[in-house]
# Entry
Amino acid sequence: MIVLDSIGFVNTGLPLIVLGVLAVLIPRLVIDRETRSHGDVFRGICRTVIFLLSVGFLMSYVLTYTRGVHALALGSSPELGTALWMHSRLSLMAAIVWAPILGLVWFGHAQGVEARRGQDSAAGER
# Structure
């Protein structure tokens, strides 16, 4: 059984906008603004990636089951492994939108680290 649902704002646009906004906001909460370590920035970005994949999985699960089991296109009782794979795949597909945004955020935090290191170096030369 193949189900072709239309792409709409509620089932596609809104989740991608939410994930994009979270890709900008979560690193601000997770990464210390005064850090001078690229390792701290990297660990914060990794935590953000895990969080965004989890949120994407949850959104996929909620949207699919609010639309009904027919939206699974797997029959009336999908196996657990198949459903987990489907939601994981959909969460990874959403990364096409938020991954470049998160990359730019990472670049901005890395520039901030280098700017603070440069200020520390300049203050030490005086």
